[in-house]
Write a structure and sequence with these properties.
Shape: globular
Structural class: alpha/beta
Largest sheet: 6 strands, mixed
Order of helices and strands: EHEEHEHEEEE
Oligomer: single chain
Strand content: 35-45%
CATH superfamily: Cytidine Deaminase, domain 2
CATH architecture: 3-Layer(aba) Sandwich
Number of domains: 1
Number of strands: 8
Distance between the termini: 12 Å
């Protein structure tokens, strides 16, 4: 189970809304399954259906997490026009099998939907997320 404080959930939804119609992306870090840090990343793809984190930015985030003794708990991104479930591209590009992949759907802009998934070897399993 992943525990995410509500202010981080609000931050992810705000990030998703700000980047629409493109996908947003970011990293959640913490310890023992509880998120303590959120890193908004730049999506280097100019596409509403995929994302790619900037490599230099991602390296700096990993360095910061290590310095703070944190683990990468989740990678989040938005689906501006589709459901909160992994697309084919999402499953093919899931390179962190221990991280939870969080998808924020903005299909209904007034009621965003957030779901998390473990993706290992292109197999998808829904993860339990608790908002605290």
């Amino acid at each position: 189970m992943l525990t995410i404080p509500k202010h981080f959930v609000d931050g992810m939804i705000s990030h998703a809304r700000a980047e629409k119609p493109l996908e947003c992306c970011g990293i959640l870090a913490g310890k023992d399954g509880t998120v303590t840090d959120m890193y908004k990343m730049n999506n280097t793809e100019n596409d509403p259906d995929k994302y790619l984190m900037d490599a230099k930015e991602q390296f700096a985030v990993v360095k910061d997490m290590r310095a703070k003794g944190l683990d990468m708990l989740a990678i989040y991104h938005s689906h501006p026009h589709s459901p909160a479930r992994p697309s084919g591209i999402d499953t093919k590009l899931a390179f962190y099998p221990d991280a939870i992949y969080i998808i924020i759907s903005l299909m209904d802009a007034e009621k965003p939907v957030m779901k998390g998934f473990f993706i290992k070897e292109e197999k998808v399993e829904e993860a339990v997320i608790k908002v605290d």
